[in-house]
Design goal:
hypothetical protein PF0899 fold; 2 domains; 4 strands; rod-shaped
Length: 201
């Protein structure tokens, strides 16, 4: 009887132990599966974060490279233009100023231009001359030129005209400019392409 009781006790113990062991293994397997799942999700999220960061870094690198390239290109173009302006200014500035400050040259140029206005008959003209050359040009403009053209000439002198002159039909509201500034601009326009080619190919 005691043996039977011992057998039953052992059987219950072994079954309980076996069942507990099985449940423990199931719980452990379930916990391991959950850990594996969490780890996989964490790795996927980390991969997404890294990919997004790499993409953003590449976009920033590309934009920065593009900005640097554009700024560099603009800087080079501006520098080239400044060099052209400096050289063309040196080439034209003093020469044009000296020529258009010569009373004899201005007289000859005024005669040539004024005659073109009067080819179809006498036309009264307005003439604006440099204030600095008033003593040299006033007698010519008010007397000699009127006789040459057979028309009236109204001459005024302005500090705004550094060299050269402005001329146009009286009372028509327009004029042609032969000033130092306009000559420099005109000559510069012709010299710029040649200077650019010579300097930068």
């Amino acid at each position: 009887m005691q043996n039977k009781l011992q057998e039953l006790t052992d059987k219950l113990y072994n079954e309980g132990l076996s069942k507990g062991k099985q449940e423990g293994e199931e719980l452990l397997a379930k916990a391991k599966a959950q850990v594996d799942d969490m780890l996989a999700k964490a790795q996927a999220e980390a991969a997404q974060i890294i990919a997004a960061a790499q993409k953003q870094a590449e976009e920033i690198r590309t934009k920065t490279a593009s900005d640097i390239k554009m700024a560099s290109s603009q800087s080079i173009a501006a520098t080239k233009k400044d060099i052209e302006t400096l050289i063309v200014g040196k080439m034209t500035g003093d020469a044009v100023k000296k020529t258009l400050s010569s009373p004899d040259f201005i007289k000859d140029l005024i005669k040539t231009v004024a005659e073109k206005f009067t080819t179809d008959g006498p036309v009264d003209l307005n003439l604006v001359l440099p204030e600095s050359l008033k003593n040299d040009l006033e007698p010519f403009a008010t007397k000699e030129l009127a006789k040459i053209l057979g028309a009236g000439v109204q001459a005024s002198f302005s500090k705004k005209v550094a060299g050269g002159f402005q001329i146009g039909p009286k009372d028509e509201g327009w004029f042609v400019s032969f000033t130092e500034e306009t000559f420099s601009q005109l000559i510069s326009e012709y010299l710029r392409p040649a200077t650019k080619k010579l300097l930068f190919g």
